[in-house]
Amino acid sequence: MYNVIIIGAGPGGIFTAYELSNLNPDLKIAVFDSGxxxxxxxxxxxxxxxxxxxxxRSCSIMSGxxxxxxxxxxxxxxxxxxxxxxxxxxxxKKALELMKYVDDINVKFGGAGxxxxxxxxxxxxxxxxxxxLNLLDASVRHLGTDINFVxxxxxxxxxxxxxxxxxxxxxxxxxxxxxxxxxxxxxxxYTCEKCVxxxxxxxxKWMETVCKNLGIRTKSNRVDIGVRVxxxxxxxxxxxxxxxxxxxxxRTEKFEDNVRTFCMNPNGIVVNExxxxxxxxxxHSYEDPKLQTENTNFALLVSKHFxxxxxxxxxxxxxxxxxxxxxxxxxxxxxxxxLVRGRRSNVKRIEEGLVTxxxxxxxxxxxxxxxxxxxxxxxxxxxxxxxxxxxxxxxDTLLYGVEVKFYNxxxxxxxxxxxxxxxxxxxGDGSGITHSLSHASASGVFVARDIAGISE
Length: 456
Known about the structure:
- Helix content is 31%, strand content 25%.
- Strands 5-13-14-17-12-20-18-19 form an eight-stranded mixed β-sheet.
- The longest helix has 20 residues.
């Protein structure tokens, strides 16, 4: 019997446990996760002996302590302009206060010395507007994949003294009972007074099942589909040196769709990502200069919202990713010059190009994978970015596909982030209302304070 059980040891779960254990040390708290502890999280893909996903029982990139953010490049964006709709539940001022509080904790646990970037007063805002681009406002703390790992390890060392962790222990079912909840794993049943569900994007299908079984309403969310661009770091250095992460939105002329940059990694690497057995692409960057490369990578994504009768936005994204896996055996890569000429890339042209790939991917033709509307938007965006960062539209710029950002069905929650059952909270990216490390972490702090009875 626990006072509070937290399902998921990602950012939302971690910050719930951290805040709650500090506010009320007498509470008996347990955290369950289907993945490994931080030190045991190792992806077998090394690019040499193992080049593609081998289907581990628990994906070390997506699950375990730290969640999918553990091996991200540790960007915490402090803004309400993107990253989720947490502010619609708790208010814009409170959301920003909690994100700044999370930043303070990250700095305290190993992030001191990392830089907090800001778009405030930047000259690039005007440059973007002059070229039909919109630079979104934000402050961003860049920890880097390496420092992010240090912060998480320090947080775990602190939490493990106060909180009971169950790793490699997937929760199969959540039941509502008198006085609280029952949590079922493969071997045991656990009970608690309060339950906080924070399963992240990788738990989307599980979350959907739980909501269906408990009669909790959900509504379809969006899916983001696109490519990861890799080019010489000097092309974007004037932006990344000042802003590090620049969230730029472009409205296409042809279809009036929004295309946006996402997860910019100066001097970083392109990596594989596994979501529900489907291999997609992502990017990392490091704070340590020794681990940096001569390339910068970022995603270009088009958001697709679906209306009735279609509801399975994630299924749509998965089908496109599967097609890429089918043709490329995993992630596919294509030179921009080959794409606009309508020809498949091959090993020879990529090797002769100016950009050395940081990920071993199969040369191919993205036009056979991505829907025309999405691909046309990406091509338009690349030409638009070329006006503020000349060289973006060079023939040798590499496009990896596909990159898909899956969003959970949005769970019906009140302003305290509770479901219709008193004491059952759903937070983080698993709720469908946060889409970032900072928002997910802030939602954890908010719920911890609500459980502890701290008036906001």
